Structures are given as C-alpha cells and as structure tokens.
C-alpha cells in the first residue's frame, strides 16, 4: 500500500513539474528575464513531451483493446454469398435451396415469394421497389435478397439502429440458432437505454462459454443484420 502511494505521489510530482516550469517561464518573461524564461520553457518541453506521448499511447491502447461485435463483410460474388449463407445457416438444406434460387434470379425469387407469402417480416415488395430505384446497383441488391431469404427463415435478424430493447429481444429469440442450442438471454443484464451493438456484445459475453457469438453482417448502412454463429477457434 505504501509503495503504491509513493509511486502515485511520484507520478503526480513528475506530471506537475512541466506545468510549474511553464508557469515560471511566463512569470519570468513578464519581468523581462528572457534567458531564465527560455530555460524554463525548454525544461517544460523536456519533461512534458514524454508525459503527453505516454498519455496518448495509453489512450490509443485502451481504444484498441475495447471489445466489439465481430463483423462479416457482405460479399458481392455468388460463390462468397453461398459460403456466407452456409456459415450462418449451418448448411441447412432447405434454406440453402432457397438461397440458391435467390442468387440465380433474384427478381423472380422476390416475385415468387410475394405471391406465395404476401406478408413477411422482411418485405420483398419494398426490396423490388428499391431495385427499380437503383437499377445500377444490382450486385448489392442481390446480396440483400439473400439476407431477406435467410432472415425470413429466422436465421438472422435485421434491426434499425434505433430499435428498442423489446424489439431486439423479440427478434433475437426467433433466431433458429438460439433456439436449437438453447442459448440463454439474461434480460436483466441488458439496459433499456443501450443499443444494438451494446446488447449483442453483452450476449457474446454470456454465450462465450457455450461456444457461440453474435456477428454483424456489414451492409455498409445504418441497419444491423445480426447472425448467431459458432465461435471460430482456428
């Protein structure tokens, strides 16, 4: 205890020295003692620069060490999209058939789904409207069709950045991976004033011993697409 107190006092003293020397330099300049003032400025820099470098390095280290939810990029190629879908769905044969159809002819897939099930959580009608609005962006929309297909099969959940905790819990509990592996959600640990990223991070801490984690599918937007996948141990 005494050693910690002593080290703390020394650290405070070292930190105060450059400020004291700078204050002294200002006082000396006011009285016309320019040589002494310059020496104090030099001393303040000599002591101060290493201190500020240490503070800056420590700050960066803290930022780098801050945990975050893993992100998976949303691929543009058919092969990579299939690989991502298999990873998220655990290669579920039924849903993978739908994924392959969606990638072969995305627009026809959307139209077929609208006729078969007019009202779905992730609305293909809205997606087709976006398609006609962004005809030059077919590659990205093809990827989103695949996410809709997986989402409507309850393998991922889509969130707006401002969705509340109730919406988060409802959609997360519908994800098949959570149901299949009986992953628990401790509601009390999730603050109502938090956000999607914070809640997913807390769940990752709870599920780490069980070998599962939330990941974000990065669509380069303010939406969150959340999947639950096994933790990669490679």
TrEMBL record:
Transmembrane segments: 7-29, 35-56
Domain DUF6630, chain residue ranges per copy: 81-233
Organism: Prevotella intermedia
The protein's name: DUF6630 domain-containing protein
Record-linked InterPro entries: DUF6630
Pfam families in the record: DUF6630
Keywords assigned by UniProt, alphabetized: Membrane, Transmembrane, Transmembrane helix
